[in-house]
Amino acid sequence: MILEQFNLSGKAAIVTGANTGLGKAMALGLAEAGAEVAAVYNSTPPDHSGLSQELQARHHPIQADLSDVASVDPLVDQVIDELGGFDILVNNAGIIRREDALDFSESDWDDVMNVNLKTLFFLSQAAARHFVAQGKGGKIINIASMLSYQGGIRVPSYTASKSGVLGLTRLLACEWAGKNINVNGIAPGYMSTANTKALREDPVRNQQILDRIPAGHWGEPESLQGAVVFLASEASSYLHGCTIPVDGGWLVR
Ligand code: NAP
C-alpha cells in the first residue's frame, strides 16, 4: 500500500543542525514517520521537552563541530555505536555571512564553505561508504537554497556553497544511484528561522520578500516535513539528483 512506503519504522537517520530551525522540524518529521534520529548539534542540545515520550526516545542528541572535517569519522562511528547503523543522512547544518563582495573576508569565505559544502561532501562520502558496507542502500538529502539558483546579494560564500550543493547533489546521484543510494535535495524558500532573523527584522527587505512570494507569507520549518519524509522513504526510490523547492512559489515567480 502506498502509505506504507512512507513509513520509516526500522530506519535510522542522521540530521545535522537538528537542534534548531529547519533541522529540528525535519528531525521531528522523520521521527514521527518512525525513524530513530541522531540529532546532531554543535552549540546547544535540542530541547524536546514538549514532545511525547515516544518521540523523545527516538531522538539521540550527538555533538559535533562540522566546521572541521575531522568531526566526520567520530560522528559516524558514534551513530553506528548508538543506533547500530543508519540509512538516511540529512545534510542540513549551514551558516551564512553577510558583507559586500568588495569587503568580504577570507574567514567569512572559508567558514561558510567548510560547514555548508566541504563537510557536507565528506559526511556524504562517509555515509555512502557505510551504506555500501551495510548492503541496504540509503538516502542522502542535502539542504540547498534559493541561492542555489539565484545570485543574491552580500552573501558570496553562501551563494557559492549552496550553488555547489545543488551541483554536488547531481554528481553524487550520478555516481551512487547504481549503488541503491538516492541523493536528492530540498531547496527551502524564505523560512522563518534564526538564519533569516535579520531579514525579517528589516521592514524594507521583509516587505520586498513578502511581495515576491506567491504564497504571500514566510515558510515555517514544518513546511519541509513532507518533502524530507518523502525523500527519506521508499516512496522516492526512483528519484535521483533532484532538488525540490519548498518555497511558496518563489522560484516560479
Ligand atoms: P539555523 O536556525 O541558523 O540553524 C543552523 C543549524 O546549523 C544549527 O542547528 C547549527 O547548530 C548548525 N550548525 C551551524 N554551524 C555548525 C557547525 N560548525 N557544526 C555543527 N552544526 C552547525 O538555520 P536554518 O534556517 O534552520 O537553516 C538550516 C539549513 O537550511 C541551512 O543549511 C540553511 O542554509 C538552509 N536554508 C535556510 C533557509 C531559511 O530561510 N531559513 C532558506 C534556505 C536554506 P548550532 O545551533 O548548534 O550551532
Can you describe what's shown?
With 253 residues, the protein is of the alpha/beta class. It has a single domain, classed as NAD(P)-binding Rossmann-like Domain (Rossmann fold, 3-Layer(aba) Sandwich). It contains eight helices and seven strands; from the N terminus they run E-H-E-H-E-H-E-H-E-H-E-H-H-H-E. The chain has helices at residues 21-32, 53-58, 72-83, 106-134, 156-176, 197-201, 203-212, 225-232; strands at residues 12-16, 36-41, 59-63, 88-91, 138-143, 181-188, 243-246. A seven-stranded parallel sheet has the order 3-2-1-4-5-6-7, with helices on both faces. Helix 1 crosses helix 8 (225-232) and helix 4 packs parallel to helix 5 (156-176). The mean pLDDT is 97. Bound molecules: NADP nicotinamide-adenine-dinucleotide phosphate.
Write the layout of secondary structure elements.
Elements lengths: L11 E5 L4 H12 L3 E6 L11 H6 E5 L8 H12 L4 E4 L14 H29 L3 E6 L12 H21 L4 E8 L8 H5 L1 H10 L12 H8 L10 E4 L7
Parallel strand pairs: 1-2, 1-4, 2-3, 4-5, 5-6, 6-7
Helix pairs in contact: 1-8, 4-5
Label this structure with key terms.
alpha/beta, seven-stranded parallel sheet, binds NADP nicotinamide-adenine-dinucleotide phosphate, 253 residues
The CATH C-level class name: Alpha Beta
**Low-confidence sequence ranges:** none
Strand order of the largest sheet: 3-2-1-4-5-6-7
Structural class computed from helices and strand pairing = alpha/beta
Helix content: 40-55%
Summarize the entry for a quick read.
The protein has 253 residues and is of the alpha/beta class. The chain has helices at residues 21-32, 53-58, 72-83, 106-134, 156-176, 197-201, 203-212, 225-232; strands at residues 12-16, 36-41, 59-63, 88-91, 138-143, 181-188, 243-246.
